[in-house]
Write a structure and sequence with these properties.
9 strands; about 240 residues; alpha+beta; flat
Length: about 240
């Protein structure tokens, strides 16, 4: 029994490493050949995991071969556009300027219900408000609202908009991220002063504290449903 447990742990670790070597794609973003590799890895790993009489190499070697093949196919897809088109296919337009392309739906076996669901996920209720709906090679449907139905932007209103840096997490679940402190130009003393102003004695009591581009820290304590705003520095000092 202990042998089976150890074999299962080792094979699990190997399978995770194999998946990491394939990259960070989500399941819905995988190309067909990548999905086949994932399914085959799952099948090959379970064989030596289920039976102690099956050598572990019978699962490890085929998986290693699949990872090598996957790497070769990836390299070929990067350098040869025609080969990538053969392996991954090409995007297809399902809706163009509010008109559903029925032939494309039937060709790619996309049901109207699936198309309507993708439209709702994209924030569009009516096909006439769709500028384009594209079936990507990974299987997901990307929906672009028409010019009349899209949300008004600063550009549409001819208003100037400066760059908005991403908020830096300074404290997450009680742990201080010193690298982000340096990136945001915040010293440990400034952070501690901000915590004191928020009524927090120690960073371990903080659920999340982020620093915005305006030099304001947004802090939420553990067990508290309110967010506090604390000015740590001037806006000029907070740009990164």
């Amino acid at each position: 029994m202990l042998t089976t447990f150890v074999r299962s742990v080792l094979l699990y670790v190997f399978a995770v490493l194999a998946m990491r070597l394939m990259g960070k794609r989500q399941i819905g973003q995988m190309q067909p050949y990548e999905l086949v590799v994932v399914m085959m890895i799952a099948e090959l790993v379970t064989m030596p995991m289920a039976g102690a009489q099956v050598p572990m190499l019978d699962g490890i070697l085929p998986v290693a071969a699949l990872i090598i093949c996957h790497g070769l196919i990836d390299a070929a897809c990067m350098r040869l556009p025609k080969f990538r088109s053969l392996m991954c296919g090409q995007p297809a337009i399902l809706v163009r300027n509010g008109v559903i392309c029925e032939k494309q739906l039937r060709k790619h076996s996309v049901h109207l219900n699936d198309l309507m669901e993708a439209m709702r996920v994209g924030g569009v209720m009516d096909p006439k408000d769709v500028g384009a709906a594209i079936l990507e090679t990974g299987g997901q449907v990307t929906v672009f609202p028409s010019a009349q139905a899209r949300t008004v932007t600063m550009k549409d209103m001819h208003l100037p908009a400066g760059e908005e840096p991403l908020p830096l997490p300074l404290v997450m679940d009680g742990r201080v991220h010193h690298q982000n402190l340096q990136r945001g130009g915040v010293t440990a003393a400034q952070l501690q002063k901000g915590l004191s102003l928020a009524g927090v004695e120690d960073a371990s009591q903080v659920l999340l504290a982020t620093l915005g581009g305006d030099g304001v820290m947004h802090l939420q304590r553990k067990g508290d449903e309110q967010t506090r705003r604390i000015h740590l520095m001037d806006e000029k000092q907070a740009v990164w």
